[in-house]
Amino acid sequence: MTKMNMLQAINNALITAMSGDEKVMVFGEDVGHFGGVFRATSNLQHQFGKGRCFNTPLTEQGIIGFANGLASQGSVPVAEIQFGDYIFPAFDQIVNETAKFRYRSGGQFTCGTLTIRTPYGGGIAGGLYHSQSPEAFFAHIPGMKIVIPRNPYQAKGLLLASIRDDNPVLFMEPKRLYRASVGDVPEDDYELPLGKAEVVRKGEHITLLAWGAQVEVIEKAAEMAENDGISCEIIDLRSILPWDAQTVSESVRKTGRLLINHEAPQTGGFASEISATVQERCFLYLESPITRVCGLDTPYPLAHEKEYMPDRLKTYEAIKRCVNF
């Protein structure tokens, strides 16, 4: 084991994947000699050459179109979109080509080897265009997988599994954890399962569900609730698409309550899909309405970021309302 932050774990995963498979290549804006705007691709060009780690023009649609072509011809592209906020120019390529190529060609061609990495989320005073959480837009696209890690160990294992998966994967990295989250990471090659949630902590009275950086938030809220005698079960969803409805439902049948926390605005957020599914599966077990603690329904603010965020205090108050319903 080696102490790594999340950026180092991602870099280590890319080195592991590129060392093990010469078809793996990394490209995007400034990922070459510069090592990426956050340095996640540091030294990859030096180690593997300009043919396997290189810069692209500033055109997100072009990056993903290029990646689709490489994937369909047998390469294993790992394309970086510099910020999740910039991914929307590539929306057409991802929705209509990346996700559908296998189906429109009757299985003759596929973009299944493509992994798209992108940092997302707020908490760094980045304002409207460097703070959004767009996972729900892409959760509506059959043919894709969406994966989000919460710490360095998860980041390496899930990224390696994403690169080697037989489906295109959108790998979303919570950038406020890039250097803030540090933990033990195996130097060896390992993978973590996609589509499988992790029960981080067992509890009795309420299930708390989140992903990415918000897992730390619900853990802190659970610690506050514990002082009130409330036992919280904590689940990290890890994969948004497909998401592990079975693990979540089993937990809710036990606790009778569910709180979902995500950073994106509440209306149309992925918590809405989870709420509907759990309500269908667990209606007779529910002791209180399913509760969402989410970002506000407003463009991401610069001056009032703290007010926007679904923090531990908002979560703690919501836990008490659920338990005392």
List keywords for this structure.
325 residues, 12 helices, 35% helix
Measured as a percent range, the helix fraction is 25-40%
**Helical run tally:** 12
Distance between the termini: 45 Å
Number of strands: 14
Query: What Rg do the Cα atoms give?
Result: 20 Å
Stretches where pLDDT is under 50 for at least 5 consecutive residues are none
| Strand fraction | 15-25%
Shape: globular
Mean pLDDT: 97
Q: How do the strands line up in the largest sheet?
A: 3-2-4-5-7-6-12
| Structural class estimated from helices and strands | alpha/beta
Query: What order do the helices and strands follow?
Result: EHEHEHEHHEHEHEEEEHEEHEHEHH
State the major sheet.
7 strands, mixed
